Amino acid sequence: MYCSDRCRKAAKRAIAKGAGLRTKAVGNPGQLGKEPTEFPGGQTASPRDLAARARKTRRYQGRRTLWRISGDPKCRGCGRQLMDPASGVIVAQTAEGNSVVLGLMKCARIWLCPVCSATIRHQRAQEITRVVVDWIRRGGIAVLVTFTARHAHTHQLADLMDAIQGSRKASAADVRAAETRLVAALAAYDDAVRLAKFTIAAASRDAGKGLKRKAAAAAKEDVASDVFAAWNGVLDAKAALRKTGRTAGAYQRLISGGTWAGRPDRNETGIRDRVGYLGMIRATEITLGLANGWHPHIHAIVLLGGTTEGEKADKKITGVFTPSDSAIAEFEGHFRSVWTTHLKRINPEYTPSDEHGVDFKRLKTERDAQDLGQYIAKLQDGDKTVSPANEVARGDLKEGRYGNMTPFQLLGRIGDIIGGMPEEDAEGDGPLEWCLGSWHEYERAVRGRRAIEWTRYLRSMFGIEGGDTEEDDLDALFAADGANEYRAGIRVQDETWGKVTGRALDLAAVQAVEGTKGIDMEKVAEVVAAAGAALDTVALLTPAEIAEAYAGILETLAQRREEAAARRRREDEKHDQEDDVEGSEPVDTKAREKAQQERLLRRHTRRGVPAAR
Question: How far apart are the first and last CA of the chain?
């Protein structure tokens, strides 16, 4: 069994050179088969273990590639910069025999870092599994919906992401700069209007009898260009300020408007009430191909058949019912129509076909409740069972289809080629220059976006803590470290760890501590020697010493959790003061802005200043 094309090619080269691989497979000696493979030294591992080990190796290789090519400073420091250089790095062995590295900076970039992404997505998949299993056991309905857009190699990823997911809100500094620009433009416009009035009045006053009207008209024509230029400056500043806000994409339009939410002023219910919509969990996935370019698409699990009481943060589930077939058909038709219509409105080239634009898959099970959890979402690495939770959350485990690459496959190809592998042997497609350009475009397009997002208040209805922000992802990483019981560990000094990462031995250091019989210091010594460091820079730690050293990190984690909870409360309060996107008609900001401009123009026209067209 081969984990990738690269692995297959490497195995063939090794066999051809007589590398001495020995297997227990039936057949010709030297061939890799489906039986456990035996390596020199007698160590055996199952195909699943080998596949998991290969994926872990690729994740660490991908992170080392990020250190060299990423434009994100957090990615460049992830896994090699220390939280406290004086305390060093702790590589601890867990009770299960795994190893965890404590005291290192983590980027929590779920889009970019393969190491951080694996941990974050695993926990997100567990949360999704818990909710989906719980809801189906209650008798509710869960539907896996996939949304796609038409795409071509000429389309920019950022534009496609804006179309399906909505644009990003600019940083606070950019917003302040745009506001300052608008204030200055309005002041310049007022000055231009005052100067124009003064010029027109002066021309009329200085003209002879019977010529005042003609002089005023000539003065108006002279100052018109200045007024027009000032007003155009106002329009440009307002447009720039609008761009700093977040505009809705096709996804947000699915759950807005009177048809969906109803019209209380007319005593009309919406589709939302007829199908018992509770909310949805969506994840955006991206692939890339030489022929068709970027392909971002959304997977969402939609929960239906529920009744609730209360509003916003106080909303609670009160019951379960089965929506009628006509209501389900209306729900599916609404999603298809809205998705296609808004993509076409944004850019006709993005309009998907009726067949592939929106796909619905009802999540059912004929197994009993005991097997329900495994049937709905298996979380084991490498498991081929189709899992709704993994379909949504575990994008890091996927491989591109039809010649496409996932971003982490693209990153792996870049690392292989930079490392000296011929382009024809590296997994994936495309020359190095194209791959690097694509990766940097990807980094820019996903910056500030959420990979996995729950409908507001859906978590609280099911008792799931946390959130979807990058800070919440970082909390998940810290929580994963703190959830272990440690049997032993080593402390590595700051300078030594720099040598370890500098020689790409970070994974080797982690693997040297793994096991169930304590730490083998001979393996640790081999890694330290290979890094060119002295063994006295590494100290063996007892469980008590690990707990003492990690206490500071746990304290930091507790503080982060408090800050995250306070942040979420502030966000909920802010949202409560705004119109709920799920229950309000979408606002046509362009039409409103145009009406405001027309009123301004009419007012200034009445004052004797020509209006800008």
Answer: 69
Domain presence at residue 107:
no
d(C-alpha 277, C-alpha 519), whole Å: 52
My answer on whether 258 and 305 are in the same domain is yes
Instruction: Look at residue 23 in the predicted model and tell me its pLDDT.
Output: 34
Bridge partners, 298 (sequence order): 147, 284
Write down the pLDDT at residue 589. Answer: 44
Q: 237 with 296, same domain?
A: no
Residues 15 and 153 in one domain: no
Residues 189 and 158 in one domain: no
Contact 581, 256 (CB under 8 A): yes
- Mean pLDDT confidence for 437-442: 96
- Neighbour count for residue 559 (Cβ, 10 Å): 10
Tell me the C-alpha distance between 29 and 38, whole Å: 12
Q: Verify that 296 and 239 share a domain, yes or no.
A: no
Strands 452-454 and 358-362: unpaired
306-331 per-position pLDDT tens digit: 999 988 888 999 999 999 999 999 99
Q: Considering only CA atoms, which of 521, 467, 518 is closest in space to residue 492?
A: 521
Q: What is the full DSSP assignment across 586-601?
A: PP-HHHHHHHHHHHHH
Clarify whether residues 302 and 346 are in a common domain.
yes
Q: Is there a domain that residue 462 lies in? A: no
**pTM of the complete model:** 0.73
Task: Convert the pLDDT of each residue in 147-183 to its tens digit.
Answer: 999 999 899 999 999 999 988 777 777 888 888 999 9
pLDDT of residue 32: 40
**Half-sphere exposure for 453 (CA within 13 Å, toward CB):** 14
Q: What is the mean pLDDT of the chain?
A: 80
Taking the C-alpha atoms of residue 311 and residue 373, their distance in angstroms, rounded to an integer, is 30
Cβ distance 300 to 279 under 8 Å? no
- Record the tokens describing residue 249, joined without a space: 């994409």
Say how many domains are in the chain.
3
**Tokens of residue 240, six digits:** 């720039």
Q: Are residues 279 and 312 in the same domain?
A: yes
* Amino acid in position 407: P
* Domain assignment present for 84: no
Q: How far apart are CA 261 and CA 580, in angstroms?
A: 10
State whether 295 and 333 are in the same domain.
yes
Owning domain of residue 186: 172-245+588-606
Nearest to 233, CA basis, from 193, 285, 288? 193
Please choose, from the candidates 362, 387, 357, the residue with its C-alpha nearest in 3D space to the C-alpha of residue 375: 387
Sheet of strand 452-454, all strands in order from the earlier edge strand to the far edge: 358-362, 141-148, 293-304, 279-289, 452-454
Phi, psi of 260 (to 5 degrees): -80, -50
Assigned token pair, 446:
């996903």
- Contact criterion met (CB below 8 Å) for 250 and 339: yes
Give domain status of residue 342, yes or no: yes
